[in-house]
Amino acid sequence: MTNSHQPDTAAVSAAERLYTVLAAIPAGTVVTYGQLAALAGFPRRARWVGQMLQRLPEGSRLPWHRVINAQGRSSFPPASPAYARQLQLLRAEGVVISPSGRIALQRHGLN
Question: Where are the transmembrane segments (predicted)?
């Protein structure tokens, strides 16, 4: 039984691994949730990555905007402020986004 006042060290180290890999994604490059999970050592945990990114504190300096879905699109609803912010940040890094909101993974994806 774990003490509720102490953080789960496995969860902390998993989050640290994820955030360390995320921080290393270069500007102008995107990764999918699944790729980020695999790079952090958690293959097939794309949904977990999404949950962890949702928990980032406001103002986090981690490049959350470089994570997109496997279809090459933002996972935010197109009418949301987060969608507009993500595309704005990516464009500022030189990422080309089609009028339909798609990003060419072949061109901007992590190789």
Answer: 20-42
The whole-angstrom separation of Cα 60 and Cα 54 is 11
Q: Which CATH number belongs to the domain containing residue 47 in this structure? A: 1.10.10.10
State how many domains the chain has: 1
**Helix/strand number for the chain, H first, E second:** 5, 2
For the stretch 17-68, pLDDT in tens is: 999 999 999 999 999 999 999 999 999 999 999 999 999 988 899 999 999 9
d(CA 61, CA 57): 9
Angle between helices 46-54 and 9-23 (to 10 degrees): 90
Q: Choose among 90, 35, 34: nearest CA to 66.
A: 90
- Domain span holding position 99: 9-108
Average pLDDT, the chain: 92
